[in-house]
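Quick one: structure for this chain?
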Amino acid sequence: MVELVAKTPCEGLLPITVGDVSLTEVLPENLTMVSARKGRLEACSEVLKSVHGVAMPKPNRATGTQAARAIWFGRDQAMLVGVTPDSSLLNEASVVDQSDAWAVIKLEGDGAEAVLARLVPVDLRAATFKRGHTARTMLGHMTVSITCVGEQAFQIMAFRSMAKTLVHDLQRVMESVASRG
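Got it. Here's what it folds into:
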């Protein structure tokens, strides 16, 4: 009988450091899609605030900290990262576990913006894309969520099935940026 072994999405691929930029895997406790029921966005936000300390984010924003974060994922939707959703949330929203569906990585260091500028069609410079800003966009040919989590630090979420491609594309560009000095 075959024995299955659990692996993280980027196991064996990360960490990588090239020049001043590093790429590491983030392993949040939970990833949960929270979709507010029709007309219940404010109530959903209040429940999230009271039990998890994060509100439903406005479009293209994230709320919270590394321990518990809500990332905008679409109209009246957020990805709750890092905590197990409280059952009281079920009265206000549909809640779906996404923990095994996503690869979550962190790109950081002096030059992280330059790396993303070559792959992402969104202006991610610090002047326009500040801490707590998030975007659902493309990275190369993959759909991703990119959230600014610090100065020259970005959390990137891609479908788990694209983890190897995500790491490959970022590493290739990291090497290109580093070679330019």
